[in-house]
Amino acid sequence: MPAPSQTTAAVPKQQKPRPTSSRDERFRSDVHTEAVQAALAKYKERKMPMPSKRRSVLVHSSVETYTPPDTSSASEDEGSLRRPGRLTSTPLQSHSNIEPWLDRVIQGSSTSSSASSTSSHPGGRPAAAPTAAATTLTGPAAHAHLDVHSAPPDVTTGLGELSHRERPQLASVRGVARGYSGSVLETAGGVPVNSRVSSKIQQLLNTLKRPKRPPLKEFFVDDFEELLEVQQPDPNQPKPEGSQMVVLRGEPLAVGVPWPPSLLAALQRWGTTQPKAPCLTALDTAGKAVYTLTYGKLWSRSLKLAYTLLNKLTSKNEPLLKPGDRVALVFPNSDPVMFMVAFYGCLLADLVPVPIEVPLTRKDAGSQQVGFLLGSCGVTLALTTDACQKGLPKAQTGEVATFKGWPPLSWLVIDGKHLTKPPKDWRPQTQDAGAGTAYIEYKTSKEGSTVGVTVSHASLLAQCQALTQACGYSEAETLTNVLDFKRDAGLWHGVLTSVMNRMHVISIPYALMKVNPLSWIQKVCSYKARAALVKSRDMHWSLLAQRGQRDVSLSSLRVLIVADGANPWSISSCDAFLNVFQSRGLRPEVICPCATSPEALTVAIRRPPDLGGPPPKKAVLSMNGLSFGVIRVDTEEKLSVLTVQDVGQVLPGADVCVVKVEGAPYLCKTDEVGELCVSSTTTGTAYYGLLGITKSVFETVPVTAGGMPVSDRPFTRTGLLGFIGPDNLVFVVGKLDGLMVVGVRRHSADDIVATALAVEPMKFVYRGRIAVFSVTVLHDDRIVLVAEQRPDASEEDSFQWMSRVLQAIDSIHQVGVYCLALVPANTLPKAPLGGIHISETKQRFLEGMLHPCNVLMCPHTCVTNLPKPRQKQPEVGPASMIVGNLVAGKRIAQASGRELAHLEDSDQARKFLFLPDVLQWRAHTTPDHPLFLLLNAKGSVTSTATCVQLHKKAERVAAALMEKARLGTGDHVALVYPPGVDLIAAFYGCLYCGCVPVTVRPPHPQNLTTTLPTVKMIVEVSKSTCVLTTQAIMRLLKSKDAAAAVDIRTWPTILDTDDIPKKKVANIFRPPSPDVLAYLDFSVSTTGILAGVKMSHAATSALCRSIKLQCELYPSRQIAICLDPYCGLGFALWCLCSVYSGHQSVLVPPLELESNVSLWLSAVSQYKARVTFCSYSVMEMCTKGLGAQTGVLRMKGVNLSCVRTCMVVAEERPRIALTQSFSKLFKDLGLPARAVSTTFGCRVNVAICLQGTAGPDPTTVYVDMRALRHDRVRLVERGSPHSLPLTESGKILPGVKVIIAHTETKGPLGDSHLGEIWVSSPHNATGYYTGYGEEALHADHFSARLSFGDTQTIWARTGYLGFLRRTELTDASGERHDALYVVGSLDETLELRGMRYHPIDIETSVVRAHRSIAECAVFTWTNLLVVVVELDGLERDALDLVALVTNVVLEEHHLVVGVVVIVDPGVIPINSRGEKQRMHLRDGFLADQLDPIYVAYNM
Description:
The protein is α/β, with parallel strands linked by helices. The protein has 39 helices and 60 strands. The chain has a nine-stranded mixed β-sheet, with helices on both faces. The chain has a seven-stranded mixed β-sheet with strand order 36-35-44-43-45-46-47, sandwiched between helices. A five-stranded mixed β-sheet has the order 1-60-59-58-57, with helices on both faces.
């Protein structure tokens, strides 16, 4: 038996505020529960990976902090209703046994793959996914073509092979973060360790169904637009076959009955002729009658109020109100008497009452929309009671607070003492029942907006007459009313129709029902009530509480109106109630379900038997048929059925028809479900002030298939979905507001709630509070189910319940749930009477404000409309490519910097071929010229070096190397120094004695375990025979802490250069040929691979020469450098360029910025540097750290107008957002708008592009991100959808030639085509330095040739994708300028769904998804996309991000996220260049070292 359900749980349009408590069970149905249990039993158990959660996130706030415990007389245990044996459902095994999974780890290849499963099961039962045979893929085997059945199931495109990328991974050594021991982590081939994470991922793969292999098209047309799959209708789906329906006419309104001319006339008549007759009895929470309002009192008090409103309220000597003005009625549910007086008082004064809920806090759910309604109705006055006014939130002044979004209101307390007695002769103007508005009833729509339905005086009267006739009300009858008297049936029967017939209403407050659910039955009994007005919930509650009560009798009841008969699940309550109470005098024919709608008021009601209605009917309908909008009485499939009861006949005097839900209002066929439309004088007339939607709802003209209008009177759409059954009975199967259209099928939120509640007999859900709604992701509705879990539920329980709910909904409704979220008890926003406020819940879900404690997303099964995976077509050969470009008039994409030969006197260039010669020459000719200034955090100069000082220091180092360390020519020396002059001196010392220097970043003393292994690795891989360093670092390398991280006994000789004796070297080494190795440059790439490149003396000098020319560097210049000096261009600028060009370098170590962010910019300003270099991390620190301080810096005299060019040294696509915000921010300090640019280099050539001081400004283009995934460049306008800005990476350096080559065929490509950037230049590195004889493997990185065209030139392959584009600008030589755009590293790209994705694009989308996502990194693991986000916020908000991340990646990239990992800020590792180390992150994730806050495995 399902847990008790919250009433509004699944009615996204809360038409009625619904009371609720632990005993509410709208949706209980034994048959359905059995069906669900049977469906679940069919499922073989599928292990689903349980999300991992940090312990601190598990602590739920206790429920007590939210609400007082529910004190109720009824016991919580509902077991008595169960038949024996009901409890034996088939619970899935508990998931506590995580550990045994470990041995079943599957090890998949780390090569990129292809992406996310989109298989769905149209209609059929999904079989449990086959477990894939585990295969261990290692190294080269991972690159082989695998048979699809032995690999982990390819949950992606089903292409079968794991395509191996052309550029082999550098398999030398992985720079390993966090503890460098090969056993823990994965090797370069991608074999992971045994870890909990990888076993969970394997389970995840097993739950994803393996898609069928799509047939290969003969000709693959690779359209630019990735077309979303449009779901094709299934040819076998049920279609309506009946004839077209005809309009159903209700019986005429009785003629000859002496109806009063208006409701107020009736009130006046009873108030004057029967003043003692009871009108309304109010009860307190103990069930005692507190007050009985007589008709005389109602009449006199209403008159008094009308007089006061019209005559005693003034503002600026004008009456405050004119007839027709709207007035808000704010009365609590416990005070029907005052409400009734206020309502009739307004009607008498010809004012329009707008009843609303009492606002309890300043931020009630939905209260802003109520404010919008009041504002749009022009309400300025609110009526309330003394007690209620005292309880409203107050401002400091003691006035009632202004609620968010509300117009300014005056509050009038209408208790008797505040009113003025009218003069004897005063009478309000008599109104006839005309078209004027009588009152406005609010209605909350599915989207959460609140609108007012206007009801005219004529409709009001007609409604009372029709209800009187349909229910057979007679004068002085007694009616017990449990409903909300402010709106809907509670108002129509209990406040309006009752007065017309001088009935006596016993109003039972919600609070009393909570305490004593039997109260309404006791009152029926004690007052001998003839009529009762309830909801199915009230019947259900009383069932649970009736056990001890033997003495109640319901024999007096003539009619029991079930107001929510339009909810198909009300039938089970009606049946169960009848079963129990038939023995207490309840006659079966008394139960009268009715269907109501805010727009059409009462639509249909079952007639009491004495009025001669047809007997009640039931229909057992196939849910599958209903999902296609077709009525099929279910025969074979007993599980998915919906049993509905009729809601009687249409009201007297009304016409009803059923029209198609979408599109023009065509009449439906007789066996088709559509929206009920009513044409009658009893309906509402408009949405107040909203003409557009009023026309489409209140003035619909249904037409026949031939397009003929069925009537000359307009119809009102009711928002109810149903059909007309036998005997002209109306059946309702759902509401338009609960309708979710998934693919081509329709599902009702109520039905899905019912299924979810039937899953867990053990009452897992707190008070049955479940909300179901749909959100649009990727152009289709996706079902979201949110439930409150009981405070005592364990993690295992919740996960088990969630997995079973998914299976049940899948079985019964054949639809996937996109997201299932559990929130702590009592945290969902409440509607006025305690139900769930659906639209507010949906809003919070979409804004990431729901704060769930558990989330399960199933995008793989639900999202079936992804574009088809791209098939690789047979490649066009390189020759055809060239011919194609020629025919199209496109030039081949190649470009070069200025020629070197013509620029310099070649003798001088030959003379200084080697840097050591240049240094000696400078020490000789300009000994005191300063080359270097090193700044500390305070901005003061800590050390300087003139030409001669540097030369002498270098000589000392050389002497020490030769004498102390006994090193010979060609030996490798590791330089482990902090950034400074010592490092530069040690570098030249090595060159002076013929040793080969390797600069290494020193280990971080606070973080030895992660930084020292990298140092050790570089020393070992570079085969260094000696380590030069400072005394402090030498102590560190041999310390106890170091011994814990690495084996310190295996260090080579360590020399400290702090106090070596002054010595000259007899003769300085001069290399015999320019190709001799000068130095090694080691760096860890972003893919986590340590690669060292060899730089010859010739390349070193050529590099310096190119930079000198591009930046116009002379001895008189000063440049400021804020970079790390260990590798790439940073090293060249620190150690090489100043010596070569003679300019002065102001050195700012980036580490010093941590204690003084403005250090670099202050130095640039102080030394008036025209040229400055920095890294992205430095730029980011300045942007984040100095954002608010530009004013302070200006006061300190910082002025950046001296800067001609500020270059970011990078090996990645330019980060436009960062450079632009930096430029904008520091414009205030005089930074020229166009000064900032980026450089580009890589391992094979550390400086390919560099803006320099001359030449055109860098240009920006916008490319289509979707075309980019297909390896194409398509230029689009700025701001067009899917556009991605790319800016060129500076100018190509002198002597450098660049060409774009096809990644597979190695043929040259045309202008604006995407391919690999190849480079040829005198300063290319000569090869990788690896100690393992693997040079041959990567030889083609340095000596590639084109397969067609110019096949002679030797090129180096950069491993980066990019394109060249000829611009309209001219460069210095007058030629048209060719711009090089870098798109991203090939090694980083993810191949998913046959397309190539750049991680940064996905990450940019994710970071935009929610304000508390600080940073993001993505990688793939066995074909699953893993997204790691850093949460900058409270841990309890972590789970909000899961759905938002999944949504945004689906929407913008058409990818299904496999795993979402939420971690603390700073967990994503970043290297010194500010690049994310995604592979380190991946290794850390697989080895379970990230300590994530939450890991969600999307099903």
